[in-house]
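COMPLEX REQUEST
Ligand: adenosine-5'-diphosphate
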Amino acid sequence: MGQTLNARVAVYTGTFDPVHHGHFDIIKRGSRLYDRLIVGVGINTDKTTMFSLEDRVELLCDVAKPFPNVEVRSFEGLAVRFVRESGARIILRGLRTLSDMEYEFTMSLMNLHLDPEIETVFLMATEEYSHVSSSLLRQIAVLGGDLTKFLPHQVKDALMEKVKKQ
Ligand code: ADP
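STATUS: Structure written out below.
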């Protein structure tokens, strides 16, 4: 510890496999709330992802381009450690449903135990995207459904390409 953490800097953590409009909405709102927003793309050894880490970061960089105070970085290991190393005081997360709530509540309490100086802040999903998740979109893509409403165009193209190759 011993390092000063900035409460005006937040880290929005996630897997982003791939980034969708629900994530974009949190990035947009987070970028207005904080001086700097770091999107932290986690390397999760428990989760197999459809998109490689490089692809997820690249798509996020593209999508976050309109926001000059947003940067995208990947991290391995504990989120609180990455947040501290970034000099940030805030973990930003989105909340969609009651089931999200249970998981996020547990995670935020554990993170508070791991590093009491770092707080988790939640933004409620907008109604429009509260039912949208990366896993559901991946399933719909495999089944040939239209994803235009839920994905930025470059992400939709990348997802269709992935599905075609599988
Ligand atoms: P995880 O970090 O659990 O692997 P994701 O990468 O899918 O999950 O999402 C990262 C963060 O974005 C989480 O806080 C999640 O609750 C939030 N999120 C996911 N989908 C939406 C959505 N449609 N609207 C708002 N927030 C969302």
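REMARKS: Residues 108 and 124 are 15 Å apart (CA to CA). Strands lie at 6-14, 36-43, 70-76, 88-95, 119-124.
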